[in-house]
Inverse folding.
């Protein structure tokens, strides 16, 4: 009984990490059809937010530093959601319906974000903000001051001049700051090295059951996943914005005709998915290390979960995450080989499963199984039906 | 004037954004380059810069050396610290007058934790920058990737990290431990003190796999037992299946021998503690976790576990006191020193001594010959370069304390001679390496 319980718990705990990581993507990719390769980096930003909040609370002292994780959750959600919002408004909204371009653009964004956390420091931030303020400020002023005709006829020249001037000013300022500021201000905030996020003491042990212990961190992640699921289910099915989101995903043109601002719905949906990625970042910071490449370790798994579950179906995502998690665990921990050798199965079969009972080989097996599965059900566990399927 | 963007507008803005990013990139490179040279040059050497452009490694006022480590990617956690140690040694040598009266100029390249990149950058340093030697690499995978480059160009690499052995290249000097200077004594110590049942955990690449082959052979020979092994892909953080396997294979506790590298260690120790595998029942012996990694994993996850190295920051020698003090003065009080950093620091000095003995920097064959037999009072104790291009080293086992440093619980009486070809593995038993004798070379059979 106990080994079964343990196996079940471990399968669920691996599955819940996959699920919380894939949840945001299930919205962005599943509902909106955007292939967001920067999803992993949004998780990474969530993890870095956790690091920042942790250090902030450390300064406040004891009672606070043990509950920083609760503050980290909303902070990570907001940071990732804002970056997601900027990403959607700045790039993705021009690329709807063009999956290949989206893929390339988001891949580029993921590279930029990874490099940003490596080299982010005050002069860089100052330069970037100055550039944005000058460029867009001048743009707004120009469109106000000039008549529409004047603006249209000289748009290219004006914008390029504007860009050149803003860029020059921003770079000069950044370079000046770089030279003049004391070293402490020029030093990168995080650097290329991984940073240390330590779970508060109460999340570090576990509940002992016989020879086996349920880790608190895992329980925390399972609870967090369930809360996110419930919250998202409520939001999509019971709130008015959820209704609009569902309407737009089902039939964009009809929703627009009925007066729904589809642009706003897109932005909100994308921000929501990104925010969930940020929350997932908090969860993974409890398990592993936090570095610029953290997101890369999860991006393949999350896409795998959404594709297997069936694009556009949250229930499918949940089932896929749990099945893949349990499968990984059963293969990787050698449970099948053990079971077969107890059942006196042929030695060759036991050997076969023993061969796959290491973490890297289990991954091979899981991928093979997924490929085989997609041969039979190309659209996942729950393929989209009806009108949405035709879009 | 709110208006949705058309395709033409989008193209316009897109190209503007592209232009911006290219400009930013071009301008961004400048300050970075400055900081790099700041590190490598001592004050008042600005005129060097002009001389370098046409210079080969050994002309003008400077001798150019390459530093090739991962400054980004999964290995950056470890490798950036080694770069600091190498820069410190170069700075000290330069302040003391340089080598053969010339200043050393270091050219730093980023291998980006990507093995083909290492080979590319190595070729770049040799062909384009014309350096006289390269200090670099951490993982065995990166060393294997650059090995061909160094052998085909007959160049010289100094490699500062303990490794799995079973290699002896004419073109590489190994200043980290060979298996008989780290892994074998560690296994022996565990057998004597901690138990005979071993579970082996490692990252999935050449070092852990070869190291575990050696450990398995050794356990079979010395009366221990390997109850299981598992390998994690680099960067993987899901260790639940491994922990379950450990619990099944060792229900009453036993020894875990850990050859994980990079940030998988963080996941492993965090989740070990969560699953209730405590050091009193499941002591973990690590060979890739040193002071710097302890700091980044968090000592609270590691207290009571063990590591085997040749050097710990807590080693008590006058040379070590000076080294730690110099390092902290250079990089800040909160920094720690560790074994690969010490090996990186002494290899720069060993190279300097070899160049001085050969009285020339760019005749690599002469430097190579002169390097053998060089000895140095290292922070870890005396070391000497052997004809097999490895150095003799003292072996120590440390227990992690709650301040993140190591309590040295055992050490050998003196330096242990290096054996690159392992004597427990049947294929290499009886083989040795000697580059001073052209008859013998990289792998010859010792006559009994």
């Amino acid at each position: 009984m106990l080994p079964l319980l343990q196996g079940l718990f471990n399968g669920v705990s691996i599955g819940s990490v996959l699920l919380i990581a894939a949840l945001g993507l299930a919205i962005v990719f599943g509902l909106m059809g955007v292939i967001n390769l920067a999803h992993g980096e949004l998780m990474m930003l969530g993890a870095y937010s956790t690091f920042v909040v942790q250090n902030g609370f450390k300064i406040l002292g004891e009672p606070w530093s043990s509950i920083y994780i609760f503050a980290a959750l909303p902070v990570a959600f907001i940071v990732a959601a804002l970056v997601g919002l900027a990403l959607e408004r700045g790039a993705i909204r021009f690329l709807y319906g063009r999956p290949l371009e989206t893929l390339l653009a988001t891949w580029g964004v993921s590279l930029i974000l990874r490099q940003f956390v490596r080299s982010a420091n005050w002069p860089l931030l100052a330069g970037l903000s100055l550039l944005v303020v000058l460029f867009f400020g001048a743009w707004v002023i120009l469109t106000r001051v000039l008549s529409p005709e004047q603006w249209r006829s000289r748009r290219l020249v004006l914008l390029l001049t504007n860009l050149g001037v803003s860029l020059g000013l921003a770079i000069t300022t950044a370079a000046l700051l770089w030279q003049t500021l004391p070293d402490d201000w020029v030093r990168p905030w995080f650097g290329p090295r991984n940073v240390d996020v330590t779970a508060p003491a109460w999340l570090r042990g576990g509940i002992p059951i016989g020879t086996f212990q349920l880790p608190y961190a895992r329980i925390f992640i399972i609870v967090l996943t369930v809360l996110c699921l419930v919250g998202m289910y409520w939001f999509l099915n019971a709130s008015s914005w959820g209704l609009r989101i569902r309407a737009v995903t089902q039939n964009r043109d009809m929703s627009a005709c009925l007066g729904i601002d589809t642009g706003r719905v897109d932005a909100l949906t994308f921000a929501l998915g990104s925010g969930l990625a940020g929350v997932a970042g908090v969860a993974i910071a409890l398990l592993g290390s936090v570095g610029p490449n953290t997101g890369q370790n999860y991006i393949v798994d999350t896409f795998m979960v959404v594709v297997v579950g069936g694009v556009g179906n949250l229930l499918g995502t949940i089932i896929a995450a749990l099945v893949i998690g349990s499968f990984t665990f059963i293969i990787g921990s050698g449970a099948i080989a053990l079971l077969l050798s107890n059942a006196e199965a042929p030695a060759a079969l036991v050997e076969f499963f023993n061969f796959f009972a290491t973490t890297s080989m289990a991954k091979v097996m899981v991928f093979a199984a997924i490929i085989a599965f997609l041969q039979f059900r190309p659209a996942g566990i729950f393929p989209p039906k009806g009108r949405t399927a035709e879009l | 004037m709110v208006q949705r963007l058309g395709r033409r507008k989008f193209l316009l803005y897109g190209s503007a954004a592209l232009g911006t990013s290219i400009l930013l990139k071009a301008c961004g490179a400048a300050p970075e380059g400055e900081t790099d040279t700041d590190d490598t040059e001592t004050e008042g050497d600005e005129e060097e810069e002009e001389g370098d452009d046409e210079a080969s490694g050994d002309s003008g006022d400077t001798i150019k050396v390459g530093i090739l480590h991962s400054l980004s990617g999964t290995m950056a956690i470890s490798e950036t610290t080694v770069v600091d140690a190498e820069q410190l040694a170069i700075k000290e040598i330069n302040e003391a007058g340089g080598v053969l009266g010339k200043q050393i100029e270091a050219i730093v390249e980023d291998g980006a934790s990507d093995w083909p990149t290492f080979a590319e950058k190595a070729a770049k340093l040799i062909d384009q920058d014309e350096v006289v030697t390269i200090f670099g690499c951490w993982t065995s995978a990166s060393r294997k990737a650059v090995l061909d480059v160094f052998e085909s160009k007959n160049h010289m690499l100094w490699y500062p990290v303990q490794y799995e052995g079973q290699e002896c290249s004419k073109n590489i000097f190994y200043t980290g431990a060979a298996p008989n200077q780290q892994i074998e004594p560690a296994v022996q110590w565990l057998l004597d003190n901690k138990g005979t049942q071993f579970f082996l955990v490692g990252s999935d690449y050449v070092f852990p796999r070869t190291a575990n082959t050696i450990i398995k052979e050794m356990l079979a020979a010395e009366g221990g037992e390997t109850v299981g092994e598992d390998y994690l892909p680099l960067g993987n953080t899901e260790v639940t299946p491994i922990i379950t396997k450990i619990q099944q294979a060792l229900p009453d506790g036993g020894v875990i021998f850990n050859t994980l590298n990079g940030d998988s260690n963080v996941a492993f120790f965090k989740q070990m503690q969560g699953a209730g595998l405590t050091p009193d029942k499941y002591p973990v012996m690590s060979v890739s976790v040193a002071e710097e990694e302890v700091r980044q994993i968090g000592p609270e996850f590691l207290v009571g576990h063990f590591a085997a190295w040749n050097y710990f920051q807590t080693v008590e020698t006058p040379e070590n006191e000076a080294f730690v003090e110099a390092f902290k003065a250079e990089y800040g009080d909160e920094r720690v020193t560790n074994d690969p950093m010490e090996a990186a620091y002494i290899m720069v000095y060993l190279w300097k001594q070899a160049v001085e003995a050969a009285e020339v920097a760019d005749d690599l064959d002469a430097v190579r010959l002169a390097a053998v037999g060089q000895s140095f009072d290292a922070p870890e104790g005396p070391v000497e370069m052997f004809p097999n291009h490895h150095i003799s080293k003292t072996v120590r086992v440390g227990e992690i304390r709650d301040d993140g440093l190591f309590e040295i619980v055992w050490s050998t009486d003196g330096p242990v001679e290096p054996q690159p070809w392992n004597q427990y593995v049947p294929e290499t038993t009886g083989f040795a390496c000697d580059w001073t004798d052209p008859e013998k070379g990289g792998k010859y059979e010792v006559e009994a």
DSSP finds 13 helices and 16 strands in chain B. The first helix of chain B runs from residue 7 to 40. Chain B touches chain A through 54 residues (CB under 8 Å).
